[in-house]
């Protein structure tokens, strides 16, 4: 990774540098304890910067790779209306990726480097986008379950302690609610259609349910970074807390759809006042994250192909800009 | 896991995708690093040699009568493309009636390390606020 871009702390600090570091840390600690925001040019601990860079770049990559499972259905959408909606949604994902890359750049990582890490298969992104979209109903299930889970995760991130990240999330959350509603509507229409259409909707919900619960990340006792992220006010709620909240919402909404969730262990625990769900296959999660999911190589390959095929466009735009500048100089 | 094999059949260009592609090798990364590099003889305003698509800050006026407000940033090879990209990126839902783009490097900002001293002058000058004057409380229209 481009650790040379990160704020490096030399092994031997002069007394003045030590003093500066200590003052920086004290200032940072005060900002965090006041629940205020850190801005790009503020002093921040190297580990805070590294954690944010990892989280924001992974988030950006997820948006960019997340365009693919849905783009897969644009040419086969059942109506012009659905096609327009799907295109707008995929365009939004591209936009969200760009907002987030901008936020990551403020931490000192170049966008080119992030893109290279992604297409070289070195960067991680959300495991959910490595599952195939095999039917039109998957567009509904992705909108309802996947974007629903994403919203649950992202709303608290609007208050993340790093200013540029929080601001990007505010923008994203505003746009994301249309995504979930359109997915719900697709499922609702299918569920009220022919028996075969209803079956298609149920099948999609069955396949996307568990992967969407796993989007919240590993269980709290297996999530080593969570505690520090919460102490830094990047994360506001634990993975399990958000997952439980999400299950509660889905239980209500699936009734309106007239479908069922493929989990017989869902229950509301009266003691803890929390929703509980059945066991999840965390080995599958780790396998997919490690690059061995159903579509990992296809997704990265496609992104690389698109990036390389677009090279001439980027070059042409630069050549044109140069030519225009030359003309201006001559004039 | 999914018993569906590889059911995602993109409607176009399917044959060009090597589905069995192993994890991307390091050589590919090297290949791609060289793609956008072409040293410009005349550098468009705000552009760097190493990254021809330089960084621009985007300001959007949401409606007539309001100021332009910082919306975010983006990369573009020149001002004209920056404006077009800004329109596509920051005004997909009628968020604006006017856009400014400014090369990020053209912006000067106050030093974050001197917050205290740079901004201290209003401190202790409460008399600059209307709330400082309490004797007029209860007097109408004042």
Please give a quick description of this structure.
The complex is a heterodimer of chains A (331) and B (142). Chain A has helices at 15-33, 46-65, 67-71, 80-105, 111-119, 137-157, 163-191, 195-214, 226-231, 239-257, 282-292, 296-309, 311-330; strands at 267-269, 274-276. By secondary structure, chain A is mainly α.
Using brief descriptors, characterize the structure shown.
heterodimer, A: 331 residues, mainly alpha, two-stranded antiparallel ribbon, 13 helices, globular, disordered N terminus, B: 142 residues, alpha+beta, 3-stranded antiparallel sheet, 3 helices, 16% strand, elongated
Describe this structure in words.
The complex is a heterodimer of chains A (331) and B (142). By secondary structure, chain A is an all-alpha fold. In chain A, 66% of the residues lie in helices and 2% in strands. Chain A contains 13 helices and 2 strands. Chain A has a two-stranded antiparallel sheet. In chain A, strand 1 (267-269) and strand 2 (274-276) form a beta hairpin. In chain A, helix 4 (80-105) packs antiparallel against helix 7, helix 6 runs antiparallel to helix 7 (163-191) and helix 6 packs antiparallel against helix 10 (239-257). The radius of gyration of chain A is 22 Å and the shape is globular. Residues 1-8 of chain A have low confidence and may be disordered. Chain B has 142 residues and is α+β, with helices and mostly antiparallel strands. In chain B, 17% of the residues lie in helices and 16% in strands. Chain B contains 3 helices and 3 strands, in the order αββαβα. Chain B has helices at 26-33, 79-90, 115-118; strands at residues 54-61, 68-76, 98-103. Chain B has a 3-stranded antiparallel β-sheet with strand order 2-1-3, with helices on one face. In chain B, a hairpin with a 6-residue loop joins strand 1 (54-61) and strand 2. The longest helix of chain B is centred in the middle third of the chain and has 12 residues, at 79-90. Chain B is elongated. The N and C termini of chain B lie far apart (74 Å). Chains A and B meet through helix 4, helix 5, helix 7, helix 11 and helix 12 of A and helix 1, strand 2 and helix 2 of B.
């Amino acid at each position: 990774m481009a650790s040379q871009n990160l704020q490096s702390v030399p092994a031997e600090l002069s007394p003045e540098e030590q003093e500066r570091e200590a003052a920086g840390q004290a200032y940072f600690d005060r900002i965090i304890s006041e629940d205020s925001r850190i801005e790009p040019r503020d002093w921040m601990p190297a580990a805070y910067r590294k954690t944010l860079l990892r989280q924001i770049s992974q988030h950006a990559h997820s948006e960019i790779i997340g365009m693919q499972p849905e783009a897969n259905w644009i040419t086969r959408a059942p109506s012009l209306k659905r096609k327009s909606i799907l295109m707008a949604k995929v365009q939004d994902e591209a936009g969200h990726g760009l907002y987030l890359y901008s936020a990551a750049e403020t931490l000192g990582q170049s966008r080119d480097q992030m893109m290279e890490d992604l297409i070289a298969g070195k960067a991680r992104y959300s495991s959910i986008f490595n599952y195939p979209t095999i039917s039109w109903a998957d567009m509904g299930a992705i909108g309802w379950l996947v974007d629903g889970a994403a919203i649950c995760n992202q709303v608290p991130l609007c208050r993340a302690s790093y200013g540029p990240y929080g601001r990007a999330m505010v923008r994203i959350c505003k746009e994301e609610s249309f995504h979930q509603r359109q997915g719900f509507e697709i499922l609702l229409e299918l569920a009220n259609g022919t028996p075969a259409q209803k079956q298609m909707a149920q099948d999609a919900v069955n396949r996307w349910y568990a992967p969407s619960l796993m989007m919240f990340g590993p269980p709290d006792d297996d999530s080593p970074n969570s505690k520090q992220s919460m102490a830094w006010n990047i994360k506001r709620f634990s993975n399990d807390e958000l997952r439980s909240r999400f299950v509660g919402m889905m239980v209500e909404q699936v009734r309106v759809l007239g479908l069922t969730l493929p989990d017989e262990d869902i229950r509301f625990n009266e003691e803890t006042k929390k929703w509980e769900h059945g066991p999840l296959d965390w080995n599958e999660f780790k396998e997919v994250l490690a690059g061995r999911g159903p579509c990992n190589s296809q997704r990265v390959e496609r992104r690389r192909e698109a990036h390389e095929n677009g090279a001439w466009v980027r070059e042409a735009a630069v050549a044109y800009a140069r030519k225009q500048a030359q003309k201006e100089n001559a004039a | 896991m999914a018993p569906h094999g590889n059911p995602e059949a993109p409607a176009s260009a399917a044959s060009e995708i090597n589905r069995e592609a192993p994890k991307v090798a390091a050589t590919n990364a090297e290949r791609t690093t060289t793609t956008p590099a072409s040293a410009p003889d005349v550098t468009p305003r705000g552009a760097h040699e190493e990254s021809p698509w330089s960084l621009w800050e985007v300001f959007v006026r949401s409606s007539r009568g309001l100021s332009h407000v910082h919306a975010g940033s983006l990369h573009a090879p020149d001002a004209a493309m920056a404006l077009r990209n800004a329109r596509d990126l920051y005004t997909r839902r009628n968020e604006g009636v006017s856009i400014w783009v400014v090369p990020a490097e053209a912006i000067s900002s106050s030093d974050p390390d001197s917050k205290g001293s740079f901004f201290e002058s209003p401190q202790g000058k409460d008399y600059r606020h209307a709330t400082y004057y309490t004797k007029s409380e209860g007097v109408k229209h004042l």
